[in-house]
Design brief:
Belongs to the anion channel-forming bestrophin (TC 1.A.46) family. By secondary structure, the chain is mainly alpha-helical. The protein contains twelve helices and no strands.
């Protein structure tokens, strides 16, 4: 019984994905597909008037295997960039969790004010990742970060370009103060700083992906080959398929242009398109983890150990 339910669920999911227009490339390529079908209809109309426009030899003008290899290379290269971007955001979220947890548990506080200050800087870890999202997408600072910062912090960030770096500097200043007050030792200071360094290194790698598109000459040449191939198809099929040439051209054009468009959409995985990485979701995950961490009530014996071992952590 469980096997049948699983198969039904699988088929339902398959059908749901097949009918998902929002994440499909159909909306991006349908005009070009229709244009190719109209062109095929015109060629078929000319052929039906007795003009010998059929040219089967055109099918060998651009070998299908060459075009296929170019498309596969294009898509694979784009997916490698997409997957690298996903791994980089995984690194940021992972190190953000580690940094927030280590600050929460292993930096002791003596007063309520010290605790509030510590919690503010723990929240700043989540804000750092939000700032990286704003940075790689080149979004509006006020919309995304205003509610996560103090008025003075927000004004300061408005005046600079490298906002994630400035937030990391605020965190580093706090950690150095804790070291100078002998609340943490040098080894632990370096360990916390390494977590921040890994977050910033991942951000720099995201910048590299976003600012380095595939060579324009390659993209243009691939488009030229696709155009020539799609326009030559009606001349190849018109004699054998007659008016069926029109839907045949539509299917072929949809397949080829769709593969190319997929590569274009995932080439920069940090945008706002449906197929891009859900950066907001990643930021909310870290923010939620930090909120749960702050709500966590440590056992008194553990707190006592931490407070008694100030400077020996």
């Amino acid at each position: 019984m469980s096997k049948i339910v699983t198969e039904q669920k699988s088929w339902f999911n398959w059908l749901k994905l097949a009918l998902n227009i929002r994440s499909s490339v159909i909306r991006s390529i349908w005009r070009r597909v229709v244009a190719a079908m109209i062109f095929a209809g015109m060629i078929n109309l000319i052929y039906s008037q007795g003009l010998a426009v059929n040219q089967p030899i055109l099918s060998s003008l651009i070998p299908s295997i060459v075009l296929g290899l170019l498309l596969v290379f294009r898509t694979n290269t784009a997916y490698e960039r997409y997957w690298e971007g996903r791994k980089l955001w995984g690194v940021m979220i992972h190190n953000g969790r580690i940094l927030a947890r280590n600050i929460y548990f292993f930096i002791p506080t003596k007063t309520d004010k010290d605790r509030e200050t510590k919690l503010d800087y723990i929240k700043l870890v989540g804000t750092l990742v939000w700032a990286i999202k704003v940075h790689v997408r080149k979004e509006d600072l006020e919309t995304e970060l205003k509610n996560l910062l103090t008025p003075n912090q927000f004004i300061e960030l408005q005046q600079i370009q490298q906002r994630p770096l400035r937030i990391a500097n605020w965190l580093a200043d706090y950690l150095i103060r804790m070291y100078e007050q002998n609340l943490i030792n040098y080894r632990f200071l370096i360990e916390l700083n390494q977590s921040m360094d890994r977050i910033l290194e991942a951000m720099i790698a995201c910048d590299r992906i976003a600012s380095t598109p595939l060579p324009k000459a390659y993209s243009i040449h691939l488009k030229h080959l696709l155009l020539i191939y799609c326009l030559s198809v009606p001349f190849t099929f018109v004699e054998e398929l007659n008016w069926l040439t029109v839907p045949a051209v539509g299917v072929i054009t949809f397949s080829l242009l769709g593969i190319e468009e997929i590569g274009l959409e995932i080439e920069n995985p940090f945008g706002n398109d449906p197929n891009d990485l859900p950066l907001e979701k990643f930021c909310y995950i870290l923010q939620s983890d930090i909120a749960e961490l702050i709500e966590y009530e440590s056992q008194s014996s553990f707190d006592q150990i931490i407070n008694e071992s100030s400077g020996k952590v």
